[in-house]
Amino acid sequence: MNELEIRRAAAHDIAGMTELIFAHGANPWNHLPRVEVTAHLQAIAKDSVQAMLAERDGKLLGFVSFELSRQFAGYQPPERREQEHAYICEAVIHRDMAGQGLGSRLLGESVKFLAEQGVQDIYIDRHEENAASAGMMRKAGFVELDTFPDPARRPSGSGRTTLSCLRIHP
């Protein structure tokens, strides 16, 4: 068996990534509206969205997608309120790889890539009750900032979103 390869996603990966997220990302905690998620992944072809993916023997096993944003400016330190920050949008792992640390590894590679680009603040969110995502985020160094009602995106359980951030100090 060949070694696991982690690399940046390219336009030719979009179809496989779209198939993977809808086949293996659906659960009561994930908000995956088909039109929006598909458009998000299509933006990889334009470089407005980026992703790190893992594959072995040509089989896509997981990915983490992210983009530069200003949507969390209210959470930014005052001296960086006007700076772009990153938002980790999607993270999905093939069911056969669950519990093996691949999600944490992809998240770590994404953080490393963003830090190399000069990004200082990286945001990520999850359903408040998604313990697996919470553990992966904590393991990568993310700190919870806020939990708020979000019934449109979180129709199950508590209906709340937890926002976390990783501050990178150059």
UniProtKB/TrEMBL annotation:
Name the InterPro entries for this protein: Acyl_CoA_acyltransferase, Bact_Acetyltransf, GNAT_dom
Transmembrane recorded as keyword: no
A GO term for molecular function: acyltransferase activity, transferring groups other than amino-acyl groups
What highest taxon heads this organism's lineage? Bacteria
The family database entries (PROSITE patterns) matched by this protein are listed as: GNAT
- An example Pfam family from this entry, by short name, is Acetyltransf_1
Where does the record place the region Disordered? 148-170
- Which residue numbers delimit the N-acetyltransferase domain? 4-168
**Sorted alphabetically, which keywords does the UniProt record give?**
Acyltransferase, Transferase
Name the record gives this protein: GCN5 family acetyltransferase
Q: Which organism is it from?
A: Pseudomonas taeanensis MS-3
